[in-house]
Amino acid sequence: MHFHRTLPRFSLSPVLRTLAVLPLVVAASVATAQQDPSGFPLDSVGYLNEELPRMEAAIAAKDRSFFHGAMVRTVQFSERWGFKVTANPDLAAYPMCTAAVMDYAVVGMCRLAPSEDCEPGLAARFDANVKRCREVAARK
Predict the structure, then answer these.
(1) Confidence check: pLDDT of 96 > 80
(2) Distance of CA 86 to CAs 36, 82, 91, 92, Å?
(3) Which end of the chain is more exposed for a tag (fewer CB within 10 A), N or C?
(4) What gap in Å lies between CA 11 and CA 19, rounded to an integer?
(5) Angle, nearest 10°, between helix axes 40-60 and 95-112?
(6) If you average pLDDT over residues 73-93, what whole number do you get?
(7) What is the pTM of this model?
């Protein structure tokens, strides 16, 4: 019977932890939904400024594993702003930033291991989008 007394304590603990975290998750999603779209270019540039040197280091080290994490971070960033799974019409004014964020990991993979699957012109378009996104962010 001793086992019976300890079982509820262990089974309740994860439930209580989940319930304690739930308000934080809800608050974070509400805060995310209310982001000012005019801050998107600056946030995109900050994201890219952090990611691009890491990508360059991964390419130099021939580290393919970096790109799995890069894709996860890109999806998280895009979900935070709502332009990956669903279109966020408030970001329509910043297509250069959404394209730069979404293309960065693909461009890095193509630079690491060029193949016929890599779209010609993608790297040049990516560079142009990063430049234009930085210009828009500088004006904000």
Answers:
(1) yes
(2) 17, 6, 11, 12
(3) N
(4) 13
(5) 0
(6) 85
(7) 0.72
The angle, 0 to 180 degrees and rounded to 10, between the axes of the packed helices 95-112 and 66-81 is 170
Give the residue among 28, 45, 51, 49 at the shortest CA–CA distance from 98.
Answer: 45
Give domain limits for the chain: 1-34, 35-139
Q: Are 83 and 100 in contact (CB under 8 A)?
A: no
Task: Say which amino acid occupies 118.
Answer: C
User: pLDDT for 8-67, tens place per residue?
Assistant: 443 444 433 444 433 433 334 434 455 899 999 999 999 999 999 999 999 999 999 999
